[in-house]
Design a protein that fits this description.
The chain is mainly α. It has one domain: Ribosomal Protein S5, domain 2 (2-Layer Sandwich). It has 2 helices and 2 strands. One of its GO terms (molecular function) is tRNA binding. This is Ribonuclease P protein component.
Length: about 100
């Protein structure tokens, strides 16, 4: 099981981003051994509310997400993901007719 943490600059300055990642790291340390799945890699993304969120609410949100993911994986839902929309579709170039 691999785990990564990320926080964009939208979360705040470096000190705030590090606090958000520390909180996510501790929440993962507490919850992944019981609710994580072997062979699954996790990426936790900090949001603007992460640094100041109520600790119990943060744990509850992560636990809910882990349980929902486990249920989806058991149902096979993640293999049927919707394709992402292209932000820059390929442009057709006009061709010369001979």
């Amino acid at each position: 099981m691999g785990i990564g943490f990320t926080a964009s600059k939208k979360v705040g300055g470096a000190v705030i981003r590090n606090r958000a990642k520390r909180r996510l790291r501790e929440a993962a340390r507490q919850l992944l051994p019981k609710h994580g799945l072997a062979g699954v890699d996790y990426v936790l993304v900090a949001r603007q509310s992460t640094p100041d969120a109520d600790w119990a609410a943060l744990l509850d949100d992560l636990k809910s997400a882990l349980l929902r993911l486990a249920a989806d994986l058991q149902a096979g839902a993640t293999s049927e993901r919707r394709p992402r929309a292209q932000s820059h579709p390929e442009r057709e170039t006009p061709t010369e007719s001979d």
